[in-house]
Amino acid sequence: MHPAMAVHDSADMDENTKRPRLRIRIVFDDGEMIGPGKAELLERVDRCGSLAAAGREMGMSYKRAWQLIGILNAMFREPLVDSTRGGPGGGGAVLTEAGRKVLDLYRGFECDAAEAGAARLDTLQAMLRDVPEEK
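User: That's the sequence. What structure does it adopt?
Assistant: Structure tokens below.
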């Protein structure tokens, strides 16, 4: 697993370092895209084994989570998530090999961009005006 594949929150600042971070969105020719939200949903599906639980953790409805996974599955040659219907035995969802690969590649882009842009981010942050701390 890629070191950057830890579940990310949706905050724009890295809470550990109080440094800005990049949010990468990859937009393909047909307008389909993968970004931080879809990547986080894939990670949570992988961890929870359930689309409903992953959606709940992100504060989204099951319907919205299902729509996003449907979009992702339709974007690629192979589905990224395989799901089974619920019922008496319960359903579930798992990342496919393609899903793991797409997620790993996406998180790799994030790491590469963060490393390549670190000096520029530091310069931009140094140019910000000071904001007084809240008491």
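Residues 97-127 form the longest helix (31 residues).
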